[in-house]
Structures are given as C-alpha cells and as structure tokens.
Write a structure and sequence with these properties.
The chain is α+β, with helices and mostly antiparallel strands and 193 residues long. It contains seven helices and four strands, in the order H-H-H-H-H-E-H-E-H-E-E. The protein folds into two domains: 90 residues, no CATH class; 65 residues, 2-Layer Sandwich (Translation Initiation Factor IF3), CATH 3.30.110.40.
C-alpha cells in the first residue's frame, strides 16, 4: 500500500528539478535523474546517475537496473518516471536510454524478503520514523546513518506500509546491511566505508 500524497510530491520534484544541476558534477540532470535521486534519499541534492553510481561504489548499469526495478514496484516513483519521459520527449536523455518503464512492465510482487538473522542484542542508536514514507524516510535515514560510525547499528521503527519493500531495496542500493526486518522494526548496520 502506498500513501496517496506521495505521487504529487514526486511529480513536483521532477518538474522542479528538470534541467537543474547535479550536486556532484554540476552537469544538467534529467527528470529520470531526479526520480533516481529521490529514491535514494537525495531529495534536495539531485545527482546524475553516474554520480549516484560513483557514490555507491557500484557499476552504473547495476545501479540503473536496481533502481528501475525499485521504481517499477512503487506507484509514486513510476508516476514520476512517466512524467519525466513526457517532459523530455524528443530529447536525448542518457539516463532513460534503453530503460523504458511502462506500467504494463511492472509486476505486482514485492521484492524478495529481507535477510533474516538473529536480532542484534543492542543498537548504537534508535529512531522512530513514525509514518514517514517514500523519499522523506530514506533521506532522514541516510542522514542518521551518516552520523554513526562504520559498523554501528541503527534500530529503526518505520510504520509506513511501503517500508517492507523500500528499506531492503534502499539498503541493497547503498551498501548498508539490513540485519533484521520485522515490520515495523528494522536493524540496519552502517556500511564500513
């Protein structure tokens, strides 16, 4: 289930961010870059796909594929992607090249379940995110994990119905380890570097 107010927020972000500059390399970003940045929690600091991949320390094609899969499973992200395609019709968008995302290409299954492991006995920090969802949750989560030292564990409480799909995907993209997922509680270990 998705929060209905999320879609207009993503659509406005695409419209506002189109033609802006990447906060990493200063090149012009497309609407698809805006959506991909939003998914990773860079809501106010849009990055182009190459800068997102470089920041994650992963191959560009792998990051694109993983992000497209995640976008395909969320209506708000998919709506943003389609809006970016509408606005950029006829332009040479390199982010979307060969990566069309049509509504009929989406499956209705959720990503695979998060890894199951014994719950850590303690966490180095705790955060109750309440009902925060979509881009706001991962934006704040990114900031909270950055405040921790590598290897430290954050115990997160997130009641948003999209969290069981969003958090494993986000952790997989960013390299943080999702140690345990028992909605609404998640244990996330900050990546080593």
């Amino acid at each position: 289930m998705e929060r209905p107010e999320a879609t207009p927020v993503v659509l406005r972000a695409v419209e506002r961010g189109l033609g802006g500059r990447c906060s990493g390399c200063e090149r012009e970003v497309c609407g698809h870059d805006v959506v991909m940045s939003f998914v990773l929690g860079f809501k106010d600091a849009v990055r182009c796909l190459p800068c997102l991949a470089r920041g994650l320390g992963r191959e560009l094609a792998a990051v694109r594929a993983t992000l497209l899969d995640h976008i395909a499973h969320r209506d708000c992200w998919s709506a943003g992607w389609r809006r970016a395609s509408e606005l950029e019709h006829g332009t040479s968008c390199t982010t979307a090249s060969g990566a069309a995302l049509a509504a009929d290409d989406r499956s209705n299954h959720a990503p695979t379940d998060a890894p199951r492991a014994e719950a850590p006995r303690r966490a180095d920090a705790e955060w109750d995110a309440g009902d925060m969802g979509c881009g706001d949750l991962v934006l704040e989560l990114r900031q909270r994990l950055t405040a921790l030292r590598p290897g430290q564990v954050l115990k997160l409480s997130a009641r948003d119905p999209g969290a069981p799909a969003d958090l494993p995907a986000w952790c997989g993209l960013t390299g943080h380890a999702l140690l345990e997922a028992r909605h609404p509680t998640y244990w996330i270990r900050r990546k080593e570097s």
